[in-house]
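Weekly sync, protein design subgroup
Attendees: M.S., D.O., the rotation student, P.L. (late)

Item 1: inverse folding check
M.S. brought a backbone from last month's batch and wanted to see whether the design step gives back something sensible before we order anything. D.O. pointed out we never logged the input encoding, so this time it goes straight into the notes. Structure tokens as presented (398 positions):
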């Protein structure tokens, strides 16, 4: 089937021709990762944690399929600015002016419908080719983390340049009196595989959401109201849609310190999720001061995590302040926001270091059976929230 994604038109509309023609970044040799004992890292999975309450919420509120959410998209994404340039640039976008400059909301993780379904049907999920970004919300520009959300962005020439925000919530109450509340996590990484969405929960592991269970809520009330009000009325900070958590993936470490789940990414080739940690070499008060790790956890043959999963690969890394990780077919990429560098490594080869963007966040590998494979990433800084894709071969992928 002919691919319908909009790389050529989007790139030209964004005025990024200079980036497309930029010379490949010069790679520098770098120290590489070392192997750790994978067996000391395990996951415990529960996909049915909130079944009773979620069933009651679905019965009361009803669900909206992804295609319905996108048919009601109410924000227009914009082109990348002409000033944005990164080697290997293939295309991208910015959020609207309000979201681009919002000092209380910050984009973090990125995944796509290509993660969810692969290259079949041009990577469409429920009729749409999508880029999905996770965000956290603070209580004011300088406040504490208050809640989290996702943004579903159409990336398909058939549809408008639109996106929709969906609030992430945790079910509460009982089957007789179902309710939900905010999820105040950093949402630093996100992966979509099949119908399930995995969102990094820094100190615990991952929270699991089912993209088939988006709930419809009342947009009335005030911006601070959340959950059940009366009768069948539920508010969600004026959001029309919420995505309730269905389960949890809990991380355990038998030796050494617990993992800090800073970022995650899907590897479709090995059918696994990889994670990495944001740490500092020294001097940090809000983050660990130690070498970071990267761990690979395989899915079971059923396409979900088994009740207990043992890591299949574990690495100790020589790099710090890592906000993003990606892996595909035995190769790894790591983004250091602090160093503005992208590191590439594969076993039995020297690591390479490439210049990268500032305030860079998560990475998602985009498979393509008719064009070059890509790396999607984004920048979190207010006023400079570029979401972009580069050819992976430009950054050591070959």
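Designed sequence read out in the meeting:
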């Amino acid at each position: 089937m002919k691919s319908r994604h909009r790389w050529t038109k989007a790139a030209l509309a964004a005025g990024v021709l200079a980036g497309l023609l930029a010379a490949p970044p010069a790679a520098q040799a770098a120290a590489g990762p070392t192997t750790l004992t994978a067996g000391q890292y395990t996951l415990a999975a529960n996909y049915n944690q909130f079944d009773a309450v979620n069933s009651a919420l679905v019965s009361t509120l009803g669900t909206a399929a992804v295609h319905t959410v996108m048919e009601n998209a109410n924000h227009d994404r914009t082109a990348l600015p002409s000033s944005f340039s990164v080697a290997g640039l293939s295309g991208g976008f910015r959020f609207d002016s309000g979201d681009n400059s919002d000092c209380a909301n910050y984009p973090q993780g990125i995944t796509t419908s290509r993660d969810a379904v692969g290259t079949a049907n041009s990577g469409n999920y429920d009729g749409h080719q999508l880029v999905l970004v996770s965000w956290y919300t603070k209580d004011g520009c300088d406040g504490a983390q208050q809640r989290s959300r996702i943004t579903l962005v159409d990336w398909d020439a058939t549809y408008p340049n639109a996106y929709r925000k969906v609030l992430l919530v945790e079910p509460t109450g009982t089957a007789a009196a179902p309710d939900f509340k905010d999820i105040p996590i950093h949402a630093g990484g996100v992966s979509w595989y099949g119908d399930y969405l995995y969102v990094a929960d820094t100190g615990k592991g991952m929270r699991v959401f089912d993209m088939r269970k988006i709930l419809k809520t009342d947009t009335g009330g005030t911006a601070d109201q959340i959950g059940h009000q009366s009768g069948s009325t539920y508010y969600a900070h004026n959001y029309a849609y919420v995505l309730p958590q269905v389960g949890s993936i809990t991380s355990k470490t038998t030796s050494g310190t617990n993992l800090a789940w800073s970022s995650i990414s899907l590897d479709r080739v090995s059918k696994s999720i990889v994670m990495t940690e944001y740490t500092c070499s020294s001097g940090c008060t809000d983050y660990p001061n130690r070498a970071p790790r990267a761990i690979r956890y395989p899915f079971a043959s059923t396409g979900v995590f088994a009740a207990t999963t043992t890591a299949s690969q574990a690495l100790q890394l020589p790099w710090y302040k890592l906000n993003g990780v990606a892996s595909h077919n035995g190769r790894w990429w790591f983004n250091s926001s602090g160093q503005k560098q992208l590191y590439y490594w594969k076993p039995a080869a020297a690591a390479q270091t490439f210049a990268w963007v500032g305030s860079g966040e998560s990475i998602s590998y985009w498979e393509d059976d008719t064009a070059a494979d890509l790396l999607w990433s984004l920048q979190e800084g207010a006023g400079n929230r570029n979401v972009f894709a580069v050819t992976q071969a430009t950054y050591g992928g070959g």
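Discussion: The helical segments are 7-14, 17-21, 51-61, 66-71, 97-101, 113-117. The first strand starts at residue 28 and ends at 30.
Action: P.L. to compare against the previous round before Friday.
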